[in-house]
């Protein structure tokens, strides 16, 4: 099985992928998942991580099994086998 990652909108375009499967070896955090998918789709790294600090940044809504991570434990939310994580880009206008 594994952890199913869905990319929506511009994130799909940037990565060239709509889905990424991350094999389940052990429970990982959302933060670790971001690093993992950035390895599988390097184009996403500058979108998901602060380049100077190499830390995740909030420029996308992140849902774990339909619940936004701010209602859970944020980037420290633990992911398990069979979880679905959806990344939805935040669009700003002026």
Number of domains: 1
CATH-level-2 architecture: Roll
Strand order of the largest sheet: 2-1-9-6-7
Low-confidence stretches: none
What topology emerges from the helices and strands here?
Elements: E1 3-7, H1 10-15, E2 19-22, E3 28-29, H2 30-40, H3 45-48, E4 49-50, E5 55-56, E6 60-64, E7 67-68, E8 78-79, E9 84-89
Parallel strand pairs: 1-9
Antiparallel strand pairs: 1-2, 3-8, 4-5, 6-7, 6-9
Please summarize what this structure is.
It is built from three helices and nine strands, in the order E-H-E-E-H-H-E-E-E-E-E-E. It has 94 residues and is of the alpha+beta class. The protein has a five-stranded mixed sheet with strand order 2-1-9-6-7. Strands 3-8 form a two-stranded antiparallel ribbon. Strands 4-5 form a two-stranded antiparallel sheet.
Describe this structure in words.
The protein is of the alpha+beta class and 94 residues long. The protein has helices spanning 10-15, 30-40, 45-48, and strands spanning 3-7, 19-22, 28-29, 49-50, 55-56, 60-64, 67-68, 78-79, 84-89. The protein has one domain: Roll (Ubiquitin-like (UB roll)).
């Amino acid at each position: 099985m594994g952890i199913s990652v869905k990319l929506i909108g511009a994130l799909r375009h940037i990565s060239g992928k709509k889905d990424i499967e991350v094999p389940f070896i052990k429970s990982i955090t959302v933060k670790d998942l971001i690093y993992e998918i950035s390895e599988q789709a390097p184009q996403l790294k500058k979108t998901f991580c602060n380049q100077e600090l190499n830390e995740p940044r909030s420029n996308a809504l992140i849902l774990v099994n339909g619940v936004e991570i701010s209602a859970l434990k944020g980037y420290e939310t633990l992911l398990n086998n069979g979880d679905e994580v959806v990344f939805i880009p935040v669009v700003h206008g002026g």
